[in-house]
UniProtKB/TrEMBL annotation:
Keyword rRNA-binding: no
Family: Belongs to the bacterial solute-binding protein 1 family.
Source organism superkingdom: Bacteria
InterPro entries in alphabetical order: SBP (IPR006059)
Organism lineage: Bacteria, Bacillati, Actinomycetota, Actinomycetes, Streptosporangiales
Protein's UniProt keywords contain Signal: yes
Protein name per UniProt: Extracellular solute-binding protein
Native species: Microbispora maris
Length: 431
């Protein structure tokens, strides 16, 4: 059945529009040269796609065929680079001046860092920045640094609570938990009444944020240049995770490759709940317990803590390498891939959320019920700080989280160690 995304859903996406600009003081690039006429542009564009090679890559390759048909003088060299490796691999290539792609699918948290290092071409005034008024302001803000545009939004996302409706029903619940306290109770009831695990945790810093945000905490306070990861609010959030593990409400976390382990357990019906984003829709729906029963797959906002329900705003941008020898072709490639038409195709086939308002009402997008299903989770999305150091803040926290999940430490000393590590990253910031 074709489902239509209502104007309310578009309004919900627009509710994320809290105008923001990237922080930073340095000029990371000069004004671009005038672009050539599209029909005259030729060359090869190497694109590093950091999406899932199995479920998402084929869709992007299909869209690339449309680009090459429109611009027959331009060829695209598609390279799928694992997301976990892409940041360091791009920085190494850009620093050496050899081997960097013309275009990179960049996590929203990397743009300010790459731009501050001079690795990205400024895009204002080029074909890449097409119909900017269509973009939702918050995703668009992720591509800004020092007043210039370095990234064009591809997709936006957040984390939600994904749940197995049948397992929850067997445990006595018709609705998913709305609070963190309920999350623990439901997880324990699932465990005792069904034999399945209650919730599987991804031992990654990004997946700690809903717990931290829920208690009013955060990594940092950018306005006051203060490190807040060890604040009482952040401590309270991480203690919820510690309690889920020690109480048995969460299955024993895998310390290595925890994302894949949690995802596999969920789609095989071995656990009832996980936190994940819309990028996992296709993978989950191909799983044993959802493939023949997609209605069993539930999506809800992350449960609220004592302060609020909050989940990190994520997504990806298209960026162009400053040292590219194919700038005009790269600008046209970004324009095509980020168009409302391309975004609607991506939304329809993969359930990934567009960054352009018109894409939400396109027939291809409205045909996918998952686009509307993610409306409520997106309303709780919290904008992350667009600072050059943002991406570097995750590693100390994930290392601490792994020790916590492995029983080697507890919340307070772990977060104090993380805060100390942050002082080495954020020069001049206070605790």
């Amino acid at each position: 059945m074709r489902r239509v995304l209502t104007s309310a859903a578009v309004a919900a996406a627009l509710a994320l529009a809290v105008t923001a600009c990237g922080d930073g003081s340095g000029d990371a690039g000069s004004a671009p040269a005038k672009s050539a006429a599209p029909a005259e542009v030729s060359g090869t564009v190497t694109w590093w796609d950091t999406s899932d090679a199995t479920t998402e890559g084929p869709v992007f390759k299909e869209i690339i065929k449309g680009f090459e048909a429109k611009y027959p003088k331009i060829k695209v060299n598609y390279v799928n680079v694992p997301f976990a490796d892409a940041r360091d691999k791009f920085k190494t290539a850009a620093q050496s001046g050899s081997g960097a792609p013309d275009v990179l699918r960049t996590d929203v948290g990397w743009v300010a860092e790459f731009a501050s290092l001079g690795y990205l071409a400024p895009l204002d005034g080029t074909a890449a920045v097409d119909k900017p008024e269509e973009f939702l302001p918050v995703p668009a803000a992720s591509g800004k640094f020092n007043g210039k545009t370095y990234g064009v939004p591809q997709v936006t996302d957040t984390l939600g609570l994904l749940y197995n409706k049948e397992l929850l029903k067997k445990a006595g619940y018709d609705e998913p938990p709305a609070t963190m306290a309920d999350l623990k109770k439901v997880a324990l009831d699932v465990k005792s009444k069904t034999g399945a695990g209650g919730i599987a945790l991804n031992v990654d810093a990004y997946f700690l944020l809903p717990f931290i945000y829920g208690e009013g905490g955060d990594f940092v306070d950018v306005q006051n240049k203060k490190i807040t990861i060890s604040s009482p609010q952040s401590v309270a959030g991480v203690k919820i995770v510690e309690d889920l593990i020690t109480s048995g409400a969460a299955v024993k976390p895998a310390l290595q490759d925890s994302y894949t382990n949690a995802e596999t357990a969920f789609k095989d019906g071995k656990v009832a709940m996980i936190f994940n984003g819309p990028w996992s829709n296709a993978d989950n729906l191909g799983g044993k317990v959802f493939k023949d029963n997609p209605d069993n797959f539930g999506v809800a906002p992350v449960p609220a803590g004592s302060a609020k329900a909050g989940s990190p705003l994520g997504g990806h941008d298209y960026t162009v390498y400053a040292g590219s020898q194919n700038l005009d072709a790269s600008y046209l490639f970004v324009q095509y891939m980020a168009s409302a038409e391309s975004q609607a195709k991506i939304a329809g086939k993969l359930g990934l959320l567009p960054t352009r308002q018109p894409a939400y009402s396109a027939p291809e997008a409205t045909a996918n019920p998952k686009i509307a299903q993610w409306q409520k989770p997106m309303e709780t999305a919290v904008e992350r700080p667009w600072i050059p150091e943002a991406a570097s803040l995750f590693q100390p926290l994930v290392e601490g989280y792994q020790k916590l999940a492995g029983g080697q430490t507890t919340t307070e000393p772990m977060l104090k160690d993380v805060a100390t590590a942050y002082q080495g990253i954020l020069k001049g910031w206070s605790l």
